[in-house]
Amino acid sequence: MSLTSNKMFYVSWEAFHRATKELAKGLLNRNFDSIVAVSRGGLVPAAILARELNIRVVDSICVSSYDHDQQRELKVLKDAALADSPRLLIVDDLVDTGETAKALREHFPTACFVTVYAKPQGKPLVDHYVTDIEQDTWIQLPWDMELAYSTPLAEQK
Description:
By secondary structure, this protein is α/β, with parallel strands linked by helices. It contains three helices and eight strands.
């Protein structure tokens, strides 16, 4: 998947927060005691889930699988200190092709893996998610965008 796709899905901070709270609602009946955020995309939803689910122990696993807009081989840059457990919640922003999810499933086989967004190829690898996204759609998340002045149409002549 690359930015050459014509399909774009733009996500505002408000929409992302609302979707992540919806994810939290679906997890309320579980007894998680810790979270591992998948850096970098999972850091924001992990913070929201930690608050909404009242989880105080949060760690991260730092992986790199994209060069801005192109997927490449996955590298673990920093491992999480938390051990695998059914009470461990692994959080990422999205599951795309599933390559990161496969690596995380191997590393944390009994943990619950959640994302806010899921594309068809990776969807079977997550336990919970909120929003379906078409495989050929590029997601523009709020931390990747800036607000900018827009010239009125009347002045664009």
